[in-house]
Amino acid sequence: MIITPIVTYFSKYWPLDETAIEILNSRIVEKKLKRKALILKEGQECDHFTFVVKGCLKMYKIGKKGNQHNLQFATENNWIADYGSFYNHEPSDLYIETLEPSHILQIRKNDVFHLYDNSSLFDRNIRIVIENTFIEQQKRVLQTISSTAEERYLYFLKKYPNLSNRISNVQIASYIGVTSEFLSIIRKRITSI
Questions:
Q1: Which CATH number describes the domain made up of 5-146?
Q2: How many CA atoms lie within 13 A of 84 on its CB side?
């Protein structure tokens, strides 16, 4: 069953019953994508939730000067979506792109709402996913406005413990809001302590 990773993920919150699993299984789209595949572009409405089975995705904004500002990474057993675009039916300001060859499971918007209406367990689980994303985004904003670059880097390592070996320094630097050269200085400073 292709949805086994999602069923396992939800089992740590509200395990899905057989009915919910059957409904979910009929509503999932499985995709295997190459590196640098876009699943959301600026100007498109986000019309799906994406669960990462294998691989790494990033969500980012392109600034006025053409530079990328990474907002989120999603690796195995994580969700990614532009929730503002999804729920407000608005064009997204963001991109979601694969950083590695990736295996994902997607649930389209109309299927998400069908699942909400027909499975209180699915509704509860997705609410937890969205609440956790909101909490993480709040922490990220606080980090950005009140922490040093070194503290933001240490937080990145804590939040994504295995990601620094999988993505480039440029991607990490973009996430913490520094140049890749300054990130190298931070790394040298931390290793010399």
A1: 2.60.120.10
A2: 8
